[in-house]
């Protein structure tokens, strides 16, 4: 009887523990933007703004100078010859495959870093980029640099600020466009401007109020550059999700960027 009673008590405790529900944040963040399904949604959202397409995996070979003062913009996340991230990408690719078709451009990429110059890149760089984009190793290098420089820092900072999936995406999109340097329009400066007007959830503030403050600061930063004066990726995309209370970035999603409509089931 003692054994049965002890076993009964033990089983009761196990059942009680199984019924315990760990409280989630008020945002309903779930597993966050690093969940594979949500990460793919994030890539589609960014691609709608960067490439006017939801097919982000078709963008490895994308390359053009969009006239924003950053030289060539290319690949799945808009690596730029004038901002250093394209140089880092080609260096990584060359470490993994020293004989790749882009390795010969490394001296030129170092020279044009910080400018909009094409010196040493033309006339063959764009064609060679498109050729390299057929190589799975270059595609993987783009994925890895995207995660190292943009995606992982955005998700980590978002989680530490108490933000759910939408907030993490809002951070990610901001880092993609503005980088995280020391200037007044960088991601960190945008975040500081937002925190001057609203507390993060981790600081005891409301998530929606803080994200509205962040998007206000993001719009201000975008308007400081003529090339980014169209703020629809905030106004008719991110702000729409926020106003709908979709803090978990759950589909279906409907939005517009630069006047074009998009949908994810």
Judged by helices, strands and strand pairing, the structural class is: mainly alpha
Strand content: 5-15%
Radius of gyration computed on alpha carbons: 22 Å
The CATH architecture category of the largest domain equals Up-down Bundle
Name the overall outline: globular
Number of helices: 10
Poorly predicted sequence stretches spanning 5 or more consecutive residues = 1-30
Order of helices and strands: HHEEEHHHHHHHHEE
Average of pLDDT: 90
How many discrete structural domains? 2
Most strands sheet? 3 strands, antiparallel
Share of helix, binned: 40-55%
Protein name: Chitosanase
Organism: Luteipulveratus mongoliensis
Pfam family, one: Glyco_hydro_46
Keywords: Signal
Task: Describe, in plain words, how this protein is organized in 3D.
This is Chitosanase. GO terms for molecular function: chitosanase activity. It is built from 10 helices and 5 strands; from the N terminus they run ααβββααααααααββ. The protein has 265 residues and is mostly helical. The protein has 2 domains: 24-54 and 151-265, Chitosanase, subunit A, domain 1 (Up-down Bundle), CATH 1.20.141; 61-132, Chitosanase, Chain A, domain 2. The strands form 2 sheets. It has a 3-stranded antiparallel beta sheet with strand order 1-2-3, with helices on one face. It has a two-stranded antiparallel sheet with strand order 4-5. A hairpin with a 6-residue loop joins strand 1 (63-65) and strand 2. Helix 3 packs across helix 6, helix 7 (165-178) packs parallel to helix 9 (207-222) and helix 8 crosses helix 9. It starts with a helix and ends with a strand. Residues 1-30 have low confidence and may be disordered.
